[in-house]
Amino acid sequence: MKTILAALLFTLSFLPQNVQAQKIIYTDYAPYDVRNSNLSIVGKINGTLYTFRSYGKEYFLDAYNENMDKTATVVLDFFPEKIYNVRFIPFADKMMVLYQSQEGTRITQYAAMLNDKGLLQKNPLKVEEKRTSFFGTNDKEFFASAVSDNREHIMVYSANNKNKTLDFTGYWIDANTMKVSKKIKYKYKANDIIANNDGLMSDSGIFYLPVFTIIGNRNFSDEYSIHSIHKSESVFKKASLDVATNYLEYPFQKLDNKNGKIHFVSFFSTQRNGNNEGVAAATYDMNSHSFSATNFLPFDDEMRGEASPKKRARALNEFKINQLVIKNEGGFVVAAEEQYITTQSNFMPGIGFYSFYYMPLMNQSVREYHYNDVLLLSYDANFKKEWHKFLRKEQYSQEDGGMFSSYSIMNTGGGLGFLFNDFNSKRSRIQLSSVSADGTINIGYLDAGNTDDPDWLPRLGKQVDAREIVVPCLRKKQLCFAKIVL
Hints:
Largest sheet: 6 strands, antiparallel
Shape: globular
Helix content: under 10%
Distance between the termini: 26 Å
Strand content: over 45%
Structural class: mainly beta
C-alpha cells in the first residue's frame, strides 16, 4: 500500500511562505502487531529520544540518537502482563510513566519513575485500586491524568459520570518522593446527564475540570462550567459559562499559563436538535475564577457554501473542534475536522485505505471511518472574523478506528504544522503546504513517501523539539519511527 503524507505549515508570524523540510529520517524496523500492541513517543531526555512499544507480552523502551540510530533497548519487566492507558511524562533528566492494569473487575493505577537511561528507580507506586463492572465500556481507561507544563504538578484522577451525578477522586503525586501527597473527593449533581472533558493543571498548581450537560438527539450541552481546586484547598470552586438560550457542541478549552487564562470555544446552535450555526468563544480568568461574556459568532453563507453547496444548513454538522491556537496579539484560530462513522453490510472487501491491516473479510457489517476536510477559522482579539480556509482531504478506511486518518499538529513558535495522509492520490509523496497569516496557501512537496516507505500514523505523532516531529510508521507487522526536521 502506498502512503502519502501531507503537511500544512500555518505561519503566524516570521515563517517564510515557501518552507521546506530539511530531512526525514527513519529508524530500523521492530516486530509489532497492530491488533494487540501499544506504542507511544516519550520525547527527548538529555538529548536522547525515547519511544515505547510492546510486542506480545513484552514492553520496550527504545533510545535513539539524533540520527535515529538505536542506542539502547530497555525491557520494562516491571509492567503487569496487561497494561492500558500508558502515559510517559518526560523531565529534563528522568521520566515518569503512568499506567493501569485490569484483572477481572479490579482496575489498578500505577506510577513509576525511570532515570535518563530508562531504568526503574524504585518499586512502582500503586496509586489506587478500584472495582468496577467487568463489562463496563470504560474499564480500560478508568483513570486519567493532568500534568502542568512545568512538570511540577501531577494528578491522577477518576471522574465517574452516572446520569446526573459526577463522582470525582483525585490523587496528587509528588514526583520527588513518588508518593501520593494528597487525595481529594468531590461529588457534583447537575440538571441533566453529565459529562466532562480532560482535566487541566496550571503551572501554579490549580486543577481545572470542565463539566457540561448533555441533552437532545445530537448530544448538545445547555450547561458548561469549570470546577477548580488548588492542592492546598479542600473545596472546589465552580464557574459557569453563560450560554443564554443556546446549545453547545464539542466544548473545547485550552490553558494559557502565560496570560493566566483558559480559552473556550465551541460550536453552537440556537435549537435543541438543530444545526451548527457558529462558534461560541469566551475566556476564563484564573485569578478571578470567572468567565468573560460569551461571544456567539455565526457562520456566514460563503463558508457554508464552500463546505457543502448542496446542504448548506447541515454543512458543518460533522465538524469537530480539535485545536485552538492563541495568537500573540490576542486573537485565535480554530481548527475543526469533519469526522463521522458509517456502517454497511454489503461491501467490497479491501476498498478502504489500509483495510488489509485488519482484514474484515468475515464480518457481516463493516464500520467505515471518515476523516475529511479541516476548517481553519481566524478571529482577532475583538472576536471579529479575519478569514476562513478549508484544508481539503478525504480519508476513508474500514475497521481500523481511523488510525491512519486525521492529523497531528506541530508548533514551531512562529507557526503550526498539520500532518496527514492524503488518500486521494495514487502516487506516494509528501506534500508541504504553508498558510500565511492572511490565509494564503502555498503548496510544496518533500522527497519522501515512496513505494518503499512504510504507512504513517500521523495522528500518533509528537513534537519533540522546536522543529522536529516524530511519527510512528507501520509496514505489515513491523514498526518504525520517522523524524521530520524542518
